[in-house]
Amino acid sequence: MARYPPDLERWRVAARIAAGARELGLRRATPGTPRREVAEAVEAYIRDHGAEPAFPVNLSRNNEAAHYTPSVDDAAVLAAGDLLKVDVGAHIEGAAADTADTVEVGGGHHHDHLVLAVREAVRDGIAAVRPGGAVDDVSAAIARRIRGRGLHPVVDLTGHSIERYVLHGPKAIPNAPGRSTATFEEGEIVAIEPFATNGVGHIENGAFGNIVRFRADPGAADPVLARLFDRFRTLPFTARWADAPEERAALAKARKRLQTYPVFLEQAGGLVAQAEHTILVGPEGAEVLSVAPPG
């Protein structure tokens, strides 16, 4: 029996907002623009449209595959030729969406093969979604498209199911076949998320990417931490969002209560591109929720 979220319209709205924020981030990615300025513009768009960021916008460049968001004092600027991933999430009361795309900063065409590979791969993966159908069919479609362009899927990174206040649910959608025996269920929310590289297709951990997440409810002993947990729950966040000195101090003291996210680096230093859509598994196939609003 299909189990659709009872507040499905919230998920649809959150996905449209995330898609609009994604497109804004792609447009703002110009040479000389500070990465922090792009992040703050994207996150402000989400809040201004009635949602909250489901995680700090990821602005990972070149061989950085994922999990970098600017710190409060980040001074790095984008350079012409950077291959920038704009990975955005929005949620409304925990109903979350996750979407991404890749742009070559400055409008050049040196990395078109990478950008086209992931855009075509996410399209092919979505087309292979069926209720009751094998996750492996989607994985095979993604890998076939990426390898057909002479590139490698990043096999250590996957798409994922999404549940309320849980961005990465229990179901993984691998980017290469032979890694899942799961099937899709009608009514579930899923992110299809291919990564392509001209490297070896594996990642390694880099430095801290300025993203953290509560491992569990910290309780009421520290009222500042309790307030922060009430705001973020189990979704990822960043100290850049801490509004007051006491919040930043509380986070600094609560490291054991927080999961930290390292930047994912392509193992051989290869360039990485990413595309991602949040979908609803419908009765006939996938309904793409993260479609950009007109204009």
Notes on the protein architecture:
The chain is globular, with a radius of gyration of 18 Å. The chain is built from six helices and 15 strands. It is an alpha+beta fold. It has helices spanning 8-28, 35-48, 112-127, 135-148, 223-232, 245-253, and strands spanning 52-53, 58-61, 64-66, 83-92, 95-104, 152-153, 158-162, 172-174, 189-192, 195-197, 203-214, 258-266, 272-274, 277-281, 286-288. The longest helix is centred in the N-terminal third of the chain and has 21 residues, at 8-28. It is 28% helix and 26% strand. The chain has one domain: Alpha-Beta Complex (Creatine Amidinohydrolase), CATH 3.90.230.10.
At a glance:
It is built from six helices and 15 strands. The chain is an alpha+beta fold and 295 residues long.
Average residue-wise pLDDT: 97
Shape: globular
How many domain regions?
1
Strand order of the largest sheet: 8-7-9-14-15
User: Would you report the number of β strands?
Assistant: 15
Q: What structural class do helix, strand and pairing data support?
A: alpha+beta
Number of helices: 6
Content of β-strand? 25-35%
* Fraction of helical residues: 25-40%
Integer-rounded radius of gyration? 18 Å
Task: Provide the CATH topology.
Answer: Creatine Amidinohydrolase
The biggest sheet amounts to: 5 strands, antiparallel
Please give the CATH architecture.
Alpha-Beta Complex
CATH C-level label: Alpha Beta
Distance between the termini: 38 Å
Corresponding CATH superfamily: Creatinase/methionine aminopeptidase superfamily
Low-confidence stretches: none
Query: SSE order in H/E notation?
Result: HHEEEEEHHEEEEEEHHEEEE
